[in-house]
Amino acid sequence: MLLSHLPALQVVVPLLAAPLCALLRPRHLAWAVATLTSWVCLLISLTLVAQVQAGGTLRYTFGGWPSPWGIEYVVDLLGAYVLLIVSLIAALVLPYARRSVEREIDPEHHSLFYTALLLCLCGLLGIVITGDAFNLFVFLEISSLSTYTLISFGRDRRALTASYQYLIMGTIGATFFLIGVGLLYVLTGTLNMADLAERIVPLAESRTLHTAFAFILVGVSLKLALFPLHLWLPNAYAHAPSVVSAFIASTATKVAVYVVVRFIFSLFGYRFAFDQMQLDWVLLPLAIIGIFTASVVAVFQENVKRMLAYSSLAQIGYMMLGISLDSVTGLTASLLHLFNHALMKGALFMALGAVFYRIGSVQLGQMAGLGRQMPWTLGAVVAGGLSLIGVPLTVGFISKWYLILAVIEQGWWILAALVLVTSLIALVYMWRVVETSYFQPRPAGAVIAGEAPLSLIAPTWLLVLANLYFGIDTGFTIDLAGSAAAALIGGEP
Amino acid sequence: MTPDSQETILLALLVPLVGACGMALAWKRANLRETVTLFTSGLLLLLVWSLVPGVLAGDRPELRLIEMLPGLAISFKVEPLGMLFACVASLLWPINSIYSIGYMRGNRESRQTLFYICFAIALSAAIGVAFAGNLLTLFVFYEVLTLSTYPLVTHKGNDSARQGGRVYLGILISTSILLLLPAIVWTLVAAGTLDFTPGGVLRGHLEGPLLGLLLFLFMFGIGKAALMPVHRWLPAAMVAPTPVSALLHAVAVVKAGVFSIVKVIVYIFGIDLLQEVSSGDWLLYVAGFTIIVASVIALRQDNLKRRLAYSTVSQLSYVILGAAILAPISVLGAAIHIAAHAFGKITLFFAAGAIYTAAHKTEISQLRGIGRRMPWTMLAFSIGALSMIGVPPAAGFISKWYILSGALQTEQLLAVLVIIASTLLNAAYFVPIIYSAFFLREDVGLTGDGHGEAPLPIVIALTMTAGLTILMFFMPELPLALAQQLILTAK
Question: Which ipTM did the prediction report?
Answer without folding.
Answer: 0.90
